[in-house]
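Predict the holo structure. Ligand: pyridoxal-5'-phosphate.
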Amino acid sequence: MAKDHPNSFTAGPDENGRFGDFGGRFVSETLMPLILDLEAEYEKAKTDPDFRDEMARLGTHYVGRPSPLYFAERVTERLGGAKVYMKRDELNHTGAHKINNVLGQIILARRMGKTRIIAETGAGQHGVATATVCAKFGIKCVVYMGTHDVERQRPNVFRMKLLGAEVIPVTSGRGTLKDAMNDALRDWVTNVRDTFYCIGTVAGPHPYPAMVRDFQSVIGEEAKAQMMEAEGRLPDTLVAAIGGGSNAMGLFHPFLDDPSVEIIGVEAGGKGVDDKMQHCASLTGGRPGVLHGNRTYLLQDDDGQILEGFSISAGLDYPGIGPEHSWLHDVGRARYVSVTDDEALGAFQFCCEREGIIPALEPSHALAHVMKIAPDLPRDHLICMNMCGRGDKDIFTVAKALGMDMAEC
Ligand SMILES: *Cc1c(COP(=O)(O)O)cnc(C)c1O
């Protein structure tokens, strides 16, 4: 057990936002008052019945919660071992788990009287979810996106524009997610009064990692109750894909103090973790450092320069990982593995053909790991994997990777 939380893995972070040696708030003096104000407002909202009611009501009627816990019978049959359940968060409005968090942050922003929302986005999924909820409430939305990602993710740029958001291309650095996040932080400092920064994963300075985790924990809370209903007991193994780590933290957190539940996070192994820079496995292939206001495992070179990750899945392409995962890794409560692009592609096709579900490439990584472990486990072993997004956005990438020409279909 962790030395600082002897009785619980769910007690963190401490008052400084630390999970063991990770997390915290490494920010400039100008940013400090903003995050302290945010923390105070979030602490109030968290226990306010009005806030909770609004979250629950919109969760049901706008997002479509609860998402089903689905027994993947034909996947299970083919793998020939453990029973595989999928938590169907791909059925949420906008097609992924991101909206759980965005809804929470924007309801909070409205309570704080903020009239302008800014966000960073990489693949564009968080940008689309933010633009969606801003449109629903009639709030101004500005999304920072690296120029490289704007090129790669045109359909999502168009979606954000349809939803009324302004998309600002970021040219600094290599023009990817890391740079977009830096520019969003700069915007926040210059527009303190009216602006709320909506971060898309369990990263950033405290209180973001804990706050985003809390908003995503609806996934694990539902899964726990649904598994009790389906099987009369807890799952034996949880599996989720990790970019920044928010869908995984959301599934894992309600189970951290259930010692019988094995917890596995799956990082993007790209072309293979042995191949320097051709992957995004921050825990498997990185080391601790400070990025975006918190201390965590990062992909970096010998001089501490942050490296660009590589993955077939743009949504897993972040050089860091949420600090709570770094801590869970170090104290041994969760295990982190990696899966290559090719393995994820195989799982993508397997899921389409055996279950009639086109998964996003991110959860295809989780399924690829399930495919490795399920055959050797007994038939009464219960696996719950997070199907955190649908794959419509990925069909062009998959067609290209499989050498198929859509024009000839
Ligand atoms: C954004 C995204 C991810 C990666 O983000 P996490 O914070 O690690 O969850 C994974 N899956 C899908 C479908 C996404 O859209």
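The first strand starts at residue 18 and ends at 19. The domain at 64-95+215-408 is CATH 3.40.50.1100 (Rossmann fold).
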